[in-house]
Amino acid sequence: MVAASTDAEPQTGSGIAAPDADVLVVGLGPAGACAAAAAARGGARVVAIDRKREAGVPVQCAEFVPAMIGQEVAAVAIAKRQPIRAMTTFVEDQPPHLKENFPGVMIDRVAFDAALVEAARAAGAACWFARQLRRFDADGTAHLSDGSTIRARVIVGADGPGSPVGEAIGHPVTEIAESRQMTVRLLQPFAETDIFLTSQLPGGYAWLFPKGDVANLGLGGAPAHKARFKPLLDDLHRQLADQGRVGGDVLGYTGGAIPVGGPVDPVGRLGDALVLLAGDAAGLTNPITGAGINAAVVSGELAGEAAARWLKGRADAAVDYSDEIAALFGASLARAVERRRELMRIYEGGGRPRAADLTRSWIAFPEYWAA
Questions:
Q1: Side-chain half-sphere exposure of 244, counting CA atoms within 13 A
Q2: How far apart are the C-alpha atoms of 221 and 197, rounded to whole Å?
Q3: Residue 22, helix vs strand vs coil
Q4: Helix H segments across 12-83?
């Protein structure tokens, strides 16, 4: 775990302006930490802030990442808890569908986020925890919760789906899903992710993700149906406990918001400051699966590199960043947005999706990938 940094911090509540920085990164999750590290490696003076007191705490994540990310991000090896080899999908009362060769890794998000922050510090970024962004002046000066201010030539918004940075430049995430998750004992170890699709859960799904001797059991969906979340999750927990797969005690709860409307414009201005959005703040989470860690890491690093290039006089760096984000994520996110909206239109028309509709909405089935 990473406590609040003492890297060149202003005195809390002093009201004295912090030293100016080349880059201010707001948020120290995977996107922000990777942006801070990349910008610092590019020669920029970087200050990164987060309202949390420790990296990754509380965990608001199902903690699954695709195996390929481990080839690029050293923090995966540090945070790895178990491998995943396959996915089993349960659709209403249909027979289970097993998708082999679905490699992934279950990680400990606290360890993962802490390792990314340490990498940012090692690159030269100052990382301050327990610092919340309060507001921006018209010229881009940031006012922090301790009374200090900081001015930067580039601001990276990596502050989640409710991003104040995105709001400040008029590029907010406007469509979200909400989730509820419990941690339970895992009584039968396995190396698959279980996915549960049901018409009772509009705009989402339920999951069982194993993590060693425990598992993340959760669900997510459209906020308008949030009243269903607890009874549905409790019922799924009882079913799995009756099957002898998980323990009956709940070890902890968490939850959070997930962007489901697709990407927002990741580039803007605040006065003379260039603003780049990354990760959830840029709407890069998959609207069907809720997966966002890989996109956060990739977009964060690209944002940090773009910031460093822009500071060196590359006027096209921001446009290049936007184009690269679109090239990497645009097509897959557009498909996911459309599949989710197909389902939601059924509910909005007063109906309930059939098993075939649910199958078309999930990545394990060829129908999802069809035109």
A1: 1
A2: 11
A3: strand
A4: 30-41, 74-79
